[in-house]
Amino acid sequence: MTKAIVIYESKYGNTKRVAETIIEGINEIERIEAVLKEPKHVEPTEILDYDVILIGSPNHIGGPTRSIKKFIDKLGKIELEGKLGAVFDTYIGGDFNKAVQKMEKRINEEVPGLKLITSGLSIKVKGIKGPIVEGELPKCKEFGNKIAKQMKILMKPSGLGQDSNPRLKRFARRNLAYFER
To answer: Between the CA atoms of 70, 88, 100 and 68, what dihedral angle is there, to the nearest 10 degrees?
Structure first.
């Protein structure tokens, strides 16, 4: 069974709700197990038990929270070659995608073995305490579903990086491109 962990930080519950809804989308796909945890409850070596790592943060002064940044830095100290990942954030006002972009950049610089499989998701909330803007939660479920479909393709023995047959790798890449649309 393919396993995913969704790690998030949430002060007012908005980012937690996004994480829970992403898991709903993941769980719609058979043979994929997803768990939800806060970074303070995850030992970095525990991450090795999972195939996919999703990280979510509220936008805090134009980027992810301090604990999410520290968590990403801790991931850089363990071997995550072959692991897949994605990020998401919640934002207010004009801060669309700011924390997502900074998390993606930090992962690419600090955690080179973790392959980001899709662009991050940015969800709008009405104010610091929320609530999530109407129409945003379905995007979370779609995001989770898309990631789960990619997991099924990429985590098969014929997925990217797990088989030396170039034709199978091209097939997997084409399928990945289909799901990223």
So the answer is: -10
